[in-house]
Every structure is written in C-alpha cells, then in structure tokens.
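Can't paste images in this forum, so I'm doing it all in text. The chain is below; anyone willing to post the predicted structure tokens underneath?
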Amino acid sequence: MNEETKVANIRFTLDGQELEVARGTTILEAARAQGIFIPTFCHNQELKPFASCFVCVVEIAGRPNLVPSCSTAVTAGMAVTTDSERIRRARRTCVELLLSDHEGDCLGPCMATCPAGIDIPGFIKHLAEGDDRAALELIKVTMPLPAILGRVCTRPCEGECRRQLVEESISICHLHRFAADQVAATGREYIPTAAPATGKRVAVVGAGPAGLSAAYYLRLLGHACTVFDMQEKAGGMTRYGIPSYRLPRDVIQREVDVIERLGVEFRYNTCLGKDFSLDDLCRDYDAVFLGLGAQLAKPMRIKGEQSAGVLSGIGFLGAASRNESLPIGRRVMVVGGGNTAVDAARTALRLGAAEVSILYRRTRAEMPAWEVEIHAAEEEGVRLDILAAPTGVEKGPDGTLHVTCIEMELGEPDSSGRRRPVPKPGSEHVRVVDNVIAAIGQDVDPGACDGLARTKWDSIDADPHTGATSRAKVFAGGDCVTGADIAVTAVAAGRRAAIAIDQFLRGEAVVGDPKLYNHTMGKIQEVDPKVAAGFERAERAPMPELDPQERIRGFSEVETGFDPEAVRAEAQRCMECGCRDAHECKLRSYATAFGADQHRFGGVKRAFERDASHAAVVYDAHKCIQCGNCVRITEEILGTSAMGFTGRGITARVKPAMGRPLGAVDDRQIDRLVENCPVGALTRKDDRVATLEPDFKRPQFSCPE
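Text version of the structure:
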C-alpha cells in the first residue's frame, strides 16, 4: 500500500477487530467484505442507499441511537457492533412491522395445516402433469405411509383448502392414496436410498404409525433399526383398530414391506415390560424410540360392565381384524361417538348383527367421529340413538343384556367446548341387547412407561418437538405422548423424533427439525374472497363406493379409488396456494432468524390485490414491503417508469406507473425487477409454488444475501 492510499484510508473497529477501509465505505460494505452478515431489504449495491427498512441497523459506540449500516459511512476511530441483543430486538421489531402489513401465505394452507407437513401443492402439481412417481417421492419426503393415510386420515388439510372459496376442497387424501397405489401397481415400488451406515443402532418399540415413521426416517439417515411389537403383524391401531373395509390389510403390508426392504428389522410378539425392559434396550442400543400407542380402553364406570357380552371397542375391532368371521349377537349396542364407535358399529353389521345402534350422550352435531363415516354407517343401517347414556348392565336369565339407560339434555359447555350432557331425572329405561361395545376412548398403559416422567394423564412426558424424555437416549412420540389422536399426528411425531435421534447419535445439539417461519392470511373464514377470483367452478370428484347393501356382506374396501382421468381433473382444481418465492424470501428468512410474530402489531393492513395482466409476471401488491427496489431500478438503472410510489404515510403503495395495469407499462428488463424483489410480490408466472427440498431433513436456516 503506497503513502497516498494510506492517507485516503481510515481505521476503525468492527466487532472488536481493527480494520482499515477506503474513505467513503459504508459500514455495510465493510462488514460484508469481512464476511459479517447484516440483513437488508432495501439495499442494492447498484443503487444509492435508501435506508427505508432499517433492518440493517448497527450500534456505534458513543451514539445513543442505532444507525442504518447501508447509508452510514465509516469514520476514523468509529467502533461498530453489528450484533447484540439490542440490535436483534430492533431488527425483530422492524420485521414484525413489515409482517403486520404483509398479506400472504408462505406455504399453501393445506400444507401448513397438515401435521406431517406434506408438500400438498407440489405433489398435486405432479399428479396434474401425470407424473405419479414424482408425486409419491415428494409425499414421502415427510410422510412414509401415503396409501394408509390416504384412506384413514381425518383430513385436517382439506378443512383449510382455499378451493372452498370457489366450491369444495380438493380431495387431497384420495390423491395421495392414488399416487401410492398407482406406483405400487406398476410393480416398481419406490424404495428411497438410505445414507451410508453410521454404525449406530436404534430400537423402536411399537409398529404403529409413529414407530413405522421413526424407523423409516432413521434408516434413511443410515442408522440400523429394529422394531419390536407386541402384535403378530405391523400397523398398530391402523391394523387392529381400523376395519379392513376402510383399510385393506394388504395395503398396510405393502407399506410395511417398503420399510423392511430399506433394511429395518421387525420382531413381533415381543412385549415391553414382559419380554424385555427399557433397561435392556438402553444397554443394547444407542437410542430408543417409544411409539407405544394408547392401548387401554376407557371403562364406562357403570355397574355390570364386566358382564359377559360387554366388549371394548378396540378389543372388538382387534379381534375382528384377526378373525373376520367373529361371532356377534343379533342386537348390538355401541356406546360412544367417535370413529372407533362408528367402526365398531359398521363391523358388527358385517359380522351378522341384525340391529346395531350407537348410543351417544350428546347430539349428532357434537359427535367427534368423522361426518363421512357417520353418514356411511347410517346408509348401511346403523341407528343413531342420541342424547342417551347407559347407567348399568345386568345379565338376563336368557343370556341377553339388560342395559339401563337415561335420557340426557345439553347444559353449559364443558372444557372441550361442547355442551355438557346432563341426565334428565325420571327418564331411566331398559333396553335389551345381545352385546354392548364400549368405545368411549383409550388411555396409555402406565406400566409401559416405568422409569420415565409422566404427565397427569399418565402419558409419557416428552418434548413435543424432539420427543426427548426424562431418560437419556430415550425418545417417544405418538399416542403414548399425546393420548389417542389421529394417525397423521403420530406419523409426524415419529419423523420429528427420528431427526432428533439422528442429532443425538451424531453428538449434535438435539433441536429437532428446524422450523421456518410461516406467514398466513388466516383461517379459511378469514381469507379475502378475492383470493378465488378468476377460478371457474369445477366440482370435486366423488369417490366411487360399493353399494351400501353390497358393503355389509363382507369386508371388501368400500371406497374403490379414483381412476387416472378423475385424478388429473381433481388435481387441476388446485389453486396452487403458497408463495413461489418462499425459499428465497428475505422476509421469511429474517422472521425465522429473529423469532418474529406476525400478530405483534395490529391495526389496518393492506388488502389482497393481484395484478396478473402481464404476460410473464404477476404483481401481488398485498405482499409488497415497499423497499422501493423495483421503483429505483426502473428510474436509476433502466431509465423507464414501470413502477412508482403512490399515496403517503400508511396509505403509500408501490404501483405500476400512472395507475396502469402491469401489462401496460414499459417492461424492459422486467426480470431484473423480479430478481431484486426481496419478497414474493413480483414473481414469474412460469415459476412453481416453492416445494420441499428433496432431502427430508430440511436445510438449516440461513439468511439469503
């Protein structure tokens, strides 16, 4: 360095390091030259500093206020700090202010609602294009049992499908069932490639949805995995708690076979606490996952419930699963209002019962069972007997069961939010049946959790994000942690635990699956109807079914499945919700980094406003954060007037110049505007909605430049 250059340079301190830079260098430029990351929205090195977003703030010793690093030049002797708790709080506030006026979805609401995080818009797009195998591969990034769950999931994703703003939700579960069935029918089942062997061994206890999911992903990560189960076959409650007319046993076995072909070992008829202990597993394996389920039937707590002929719902369904010619009485009463109760009633009909009723203490509207299953049961001849409950059972001299029942009426709401059933005095009466099936819930067997901290409900106390328990190297997930829940929740828990176990085995911090920020426009009832503008009505494809009278003659699958033509038509109905820029969006990245909350600041926010008039580009004004990049590029670099600012203060907006539609403005080099938009406000029409990375372990968070 010559003497003239030395005079032009100045010395200062950056994060405790003394540096020399050229006079006129900004703090941001100096930091980036040293590889120090400072977030920015409005900064562009081709443009003059704008300093509008204030997310690039830093501290300068001796100054009371934070300053924007993009527009503050370094001065001699300056001492700069680029990261501190104060700076992070300020950046979080800046991001939250932007989020409060940002209207958009990072992910499709279906995908965000799915407990397993299936990339629903992505796999449906593959199906629409006729690529069933690509659809299945994408589904299995986060969910290894698409054929099983495609038949039995209660479909929380469909409840938030934006297609309901047009007519009906997309038939999401039936579509991923099709992808799995179609690929299997080719004879070339999708078997992913596992990572190289790590030399670590993991024991999985329970071959239900949680255990199968954990084993699948642990094996993909390269760990040797052995699954122990007390039953003679895998599937857990999907096999022994769901009838085969809903979920054929060969479908379960097909997906279990894939896991076995990956290299997972299964050991059946082996029971924790009887054939081996948790101590044994901790001694012989490097980690343990408990996916024990909730196997104990809740008692009715009424006199005589131990009488011969009184069965538990899960016990009855398990016995029927093993023997579909199981004898049953002529008149059957099922007590309960959930899916197990409905399954038990429909199974009793198939086993030969002539009269089957479901006794439920609330009204039909309060029944927790899936509405489509209740309707199917009624079609088949099951009678709903609502606002009634049993109070006692006696064995009659002829072997029948005399059930004393009482009428109920609804009172004030209880802790579940449903109105509490209250007995009506003097309404007791006796009903005569041959069997009573009690299906009022399931509990976790506390004996299977010895040595582990438990909750007040006797379930295993485990971290909801990692599955870590009170005992080192023991993880748990599924119903044994949450209590009886839907299968897709257990699948998600198994996958999360697999990621955490992998971190544990590699000696890393056990933090689980990295969770990225997800902005949302809200629940379906909160979404602006304009979101659905331009979509023509196209009715949901009906699922073909066996005739009700044909159904009850046996256990053939009721829902026979979509044909390819119906699948393509149904997939075309998808509105492709979610942001095309979700993986590159700075707002999402910074919201993740700073733990931002979109609801911290309330008040008026911008409305949904989409301009799709341009041939190649869409402008979603509701996503714009007014960084000004597009305006300044057109004015300072391109010499055009495509975009400009309108309004002032809170009403200020970036719009196509002179109030014209985007398609009518001078759009020379419009791709440069798209590329420099830090969020998803300007996107190309031919870009796909962002999908999951091919590796099921989502990449760790990193801020984009």
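Residues 226 and 265 are 5 Å apart (CA to CA). The chain has 23 helices and 26 strands.
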